Amino acid sequence: MKKSFCNAASTPTHYVQVGSDKIAYRSIGTGEPMVLITRMRGTLDTWDPLFLDELAKNNRIITVDYPGVGHSNGKLPPGIGQAAEFVIAFADAMKLEKFILLGWSWGGTVAQTVVVDHPGRVTHAILVGTAPPGKRTVDIQQAFIDRAFKPVNDLDDEIVLFFEPSSEFSRKMAKESRDRIRVRPGVDDKIPSTPEAIKAYLAAAEEYHVDEAGRLQKLMVTRTPLLIISGDNDISTAVDNWFALNRKIPNAHLAVYPESGHGPQHQYPQLAAEQVASFLRHAIQ
């Protein structure tokens, strides 16, 4: 018998108190909880609902807005370490002792930090379109920077940012994903768009790339199963950044999706969700 759940495009927004902040989240599905933390400038509304629906066939899927972002009040944490502490505080407020963690892009850096700073809380981590701690092997491309910081991104921008512009298939998937996301009204209204908001994300990420806390070394000895999903043409966080580390991290699985960019889970929502489900069933703990 199929599990029943509310469609991600229409599921209501709920709120939970985390410290002094009223934090927005949505929850669909049943089963082991999976917390999803999103990219720079992402909100509850900017996940592809088909990807969430596919994930929710096997797990309880909880999406959340960072403090001061989207539907949450407060202020964006000033560093990735503090953002990781927010994730733990949110999990505590939601009464989640152990949970699966999926982070995309900026959220992927937060997810890795949670894994190494709070061993034992995360049963499995899925890292989508992100880079490991420390200096990158391949840096972000100018084409990404030129588009990422515009106040509003149209379809053409999103094709460059998250897909593969030279692929007809990828461009088609970009439009379909954008159309699914915009079934919910007012998506653009909640996206952080001021220069100050964008600078806050960049400043928070600085400590992660300097890595004075030595999180890269901690990541290389973690026993937490990691599934790394990357596009083969990610112009923000190139998959090349993982190649030297893949053999050094004891329990890391690396998947590279063809003709795709920084948002592979939105181009291949069913494939990504199925791969996540298989990873959760079979990864060695």
UniProtKB/TrEMBL annotation:
Gene3D superfamilies assigned to the protein according to its UniProt record, in alphabetical order: alpha/beta hydrolase
Pfam families, alphabetized: Abhydrolase_1 (PF00561)
Gene Ontology MF: a single term: monoacylglycerol lipase activity
GO cellular component entries: membrane
One BP annotation, GO: acylglycerol catabolic process
Domain of life: Bacteria
Boundaries of every AB hydrolase-1 domain copy: 42-266
Swiss-Prot/TrEMBL keywords: Hydrolase
InterPro entries per the UniProt record, alphabetical: AB_hydrolase_1, AB_hydrolase_fold, AB_hydrolase_sf
Protein name: Alpha/beta hydrolase
Organism: Sorangium cellulosum (Polyangium cellulosum)
